[in-house]
Amino acid sequence: MIFVKLFLYYAIYTSLVLFYGVGLIRVTQLPFHRSLEINYLIKIFFSILVTTILTWLVTMYMLLPIHMVELYPIIAFLIYICITTFFESLVRITTGKSTAEFGISFLVILISVNESTSILEAMVICFGCICSFLLMIPLVYAVGQKIYLKKENNF
Question: In whole numbers, what is the pLDDT of the chain averaged over residues?
Fold first, then answer.
């Protein structure tokens, strides 16, 4: 039950996009049709999830014993670059499309590793942050369309 509350907290209450401002500009610039492509979503989800797990494990079992936890963003960056390159090459080989994304994914990884005390919490926070971002895309698109229609009717 605590993980459901944790998920809802990060997905709805402290919406990652609104509360932290992570990816707010990216959400507004991302074309709506591209943001709902299944290969784009799957690639982002798995690269964030795998990187979060590996970063959490390296932080807890390698950096914490030697008292160098402050270096976890660098480790997260290196792990993320390796994993996202692998997934990006798989997507490009199979579909021929680019699904490159860095800013939002990396910040989700940092938040989920920083605010978790267990690997399961890190995964739940990661999933909640991703859902927060995905829930924000249609909302921003709808507001943008409303503003566009209002501007069009006034002129």
Answer: 82
Chain CA centroid to CA 145, Å: 24
Per-residue CA distances from 28 to 18, 25, 106, 108, 129 (Å)? 12, 5, 18, 18, 17
Closest CA to 129 of 101, 102, 100, 109: 109
- 63 φ, ψ to 5°? -80, -40
3-13 confidence digits (pLDDT tens): 888 888 888 77
> For residue 1, what are the CA distances in angstroms to 5, 56, 91, 113, 116?
6, 22, 36, 21, 16
- Retrieve residue 101's tokens: 């994304």
How far is residue 151's CA from residue 147's CA, in Å, rounded to a whole number?
Answer: 6
Secondary structure class of 69 (helix, strand, coil) = helix
| Model confidence band, residue 75 (pLDDT cutoffs 50, 70, 90) | very high
